[in-house]
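Lecture 7 notes: from sequence to structure.

We start with a single chain of 385 residues. Read the sequence below before looking at the structure.
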Amino acid sequence: MNRLSTSWGAYDLTRFPEDPRDQLRAWSAADAYLLRHLAGEEGGAPVALDGTVAVLGDRWGALTTVLAAHRPIQITDSFLGRQATLANLERAGHAPDPARLLTTRDAPPERVDVLLVRVPKSLALLEDQLHRIAPSLHAGTVVVGTGMVTEIHTSTLELFERIIGPTRTSLARQKARLIHTTPDPERVHESGPWPRRYVLPADSGAGAGLTAVNHAGIFCADRLDIGTRFFLQHLPASHGDAHVVDLGCGNGVLGTAAAVANPEARVTFVDESYQAVASAEATFHANAAAAKAEFLAGDALTAMPAASVDLVLNNPPFHSHQATTDATAQRMFRGARAALRPGGELWVVGNRHLGYHVRLKRLFGNVEVAASNRKFVILRAVLRP
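Now the structure, written as tokens:
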């Protein structure tokens, strides 16, 4: 837990899931800089927050929690970020509904008077969300973005300028920067270029010829990433009415390939990104509409009943925003172990240097290399009866 001190008070904030060993903060210098600007502590007048305040991309709910008295509308792509927001609001003693929490797949509010944007890692996601919310802005809307210096590039500023209006940046403070944009009421609002589609190439094993559908923000949205391609070339078979889970599904090509290969299987697609779950659903229906599937935004497999799954397919991420960490992979592995039936299998693909075999051996008591090349390794762990 770490404390953020602001003009509105001091707040103890955590990420989700909460882990006392986690050294990563639930807020950044960029969040603090934006809040000081809103309070008039950076040389300007305080920003009036009595209209509709929308907070786009609030990573762990820091901005939403501090501004809760103004009943902000949070728009997030992260299930984990949403859960962190709920926990931080409750810890701060706010009423049950101090903020309206929307996902990136929900319709944005019809009118926004103050738009606060925490710049995401994905430029495509930023572009998509600015396109979606731009019609809600008016000439008097205050638009302020924030991010670390390493996250704000010329291309970032160009998006604000092209989609919303004239844009400038602030001086840097503690390696953070603000983006100030003035909405242009004459700007013609166009829909963004998402979703995008591509056909998996012939060397994609079980996925060859499938159509992948990608909403903004999905990893390798323009092409099949090489790790997933390698996994598809060695995809394990499922039989009969097996329950297969595509864990951390992204655009869902692994689970969709499994469903096409075994139409009797029931496939569950799980990801913490709402954009990813929407992509997986679109990919599945473009290729395997006759099969059975469900699509869940969630925290790994924590919502999955114990001993209910026969096969888990997993290509885990090793980044959380800008931080490199294997915490997400570890949580996925533990969740898979709890969800698998005796005899069920977890198949994982990852870069060789990540050393996932050590974690899997500790959890399952066994692990074997199903396939490998110079860059990737596919590991198989079985839940012994």
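The first strand starts at residue 2 and ends at 6. Keep this in mind for problem set 3.
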